[in-house]
Amino acid sequence: MRLVFLGPPGAGKGTQAEVLSRDLGIAHISTGDMLREAVGAKTALGVEAKGYMNRGELVPDKLVAGIVEERLKRDDVKKGFILDGFPRTIEQGKMLKQAMERLKARLDAVLYFETSEATCIARLSGRRVCKKCGAIYHLKNRPSKTAGKCDACDSELVQRKDDNEETVKNRLVVYDRETKDLIDFYKRDDLLRTVSGDLDVGELKGIITALFEREGLIRA
Ligand code: AP5
C-alpha cells in the first residue's frame, strides 16, 4: 500500500503513520524526521535546511524531492510506504508523480487530516518527542508513563525547536499558503480521502482502518 498523509502541522499525521506503518508492515517516510536527522548530523543538507526549519519555512523543493526519491529506491519500501509530510507544494506533488512513474508504481490514496487551527496549536504546544527514537508524546493527550522519559527506550523527552509559539504560527501560515492547494490537486486524481484530525488517536485510527477496508486496501 502506498499512501500520502496530508494535513496541517499538529494534525496527527506522524502519530497515525507511526502506528499504522507498524501494523501494516510498511515503511514510514517522514521528510521532517529525515531533515531533522540531517540537521543533527550536520550534513550539507542539514546545514542548508536548518534555518528554514527553525523559521517554520519550507526547505526548497529540489532538496526535499531528492532525498525522497533516493529513499523510495530502498528495499524496505517494496511492501509499501506512508509518506508523512511530503509532498507539501504543488511542485513536490508533480515531482512525486514523476518519481512514481520512474519506479513504475502508483499511489493508492492520499489521506487528508482535516483539522481545526485550535487543535493544531494545542497539540504542538504540548508535544514532546524522544531525543533518541523519535517516539511522539503529548503532555496531556499522550503522556509517557514516567514524566520526561520515553516509554520505549527510557531516553529524555524534548520539545521540538520549531514548536515554539511564533514558529508554530508561521508554520500554519506556510501550510495555508503552500500546501493547501494539494487538496484539490489530489481530488482531481481521485486519490483524496478526508478524515477528521480533531478526533482522538484511537478513534481516528479505527476510522482510517475502516476506510482502508472499504477501499479494499486491507482485508477486514
Ligand atoms: P514536519 O516534521 O513534517 O512537521 P509538520 O508537518 O509541521 O507536522 P508535525 O510533525 O508538526 O505534525 P503531525 O501532523 O505529524 O503531528 P504529530 O503526530 O506529531 O516538518 C518540520 C519542518 O521540516 C517543516 O516546517 C519544514 O521546514 C521541513 N519540511 C518537512 N517536510 C518538508 C517538505 N516536504 N518540504 C519542505 N520542507 C519540509 O502530533 C502532534 C501532537 O499531537 C503530538 O504531541 C501527539 O502526541 C498529539 N496527537 C497526535 N494525534 C492526536 C490525536 N488524534 N488526539 C490527541 N493528540 C494527538
Which residues sit in consecutive blocks of at least 5 with pLDDT less than 50?
A: none
Radius of gyration: 17 Å
- Roughly how much helix do the residues carry, as a percent range? 40-55%
The topology string of helices and strands comes to EHEHHHEHEHEEEHHEH
Number of strands: 8
Strand order of the largest sheet: 2-3-1-4-8
What is the overall number of helices? 9
Hetero groups: BIS(adenosine)-5'-pentaphosphate
Average pLDDT over all residues:
96
Strand content: 15-25%
The assigned structural class equals alpha/beta
Beginning-to-end CA distance, first to last residue: 15 Å
Main beta sheet strand tally, sense and closure: 5 strands, parallel
Cα shape: globular
Please, could you describe this protein's structure?
The structure is a single chain. With 220 residues, the protein is an alpha/beta fold. The chain has helices at residues 13-24, 31-40, 44-55, 61-71, 90-102, 117-126, 165-179, 182-188, 201-214, and strands at 2-6, 27-30, 81-84, 109-114, 127-130, 136-138, 157-158, 192-196. The strands form 2 sheets. Strands 2-3-1-4-8 form a 5-stranded parallel sheet, sandwiched between helices. A hairpin with a 5-residue loop joins strand 5 (127-130) and strand 6. The longest helix has 15 residues, at 165-179. The radius of gyration is 17 Å and the shape is globular. Bound molecules: BIS(adenosine)-5'-pentaphosphate (AP5).
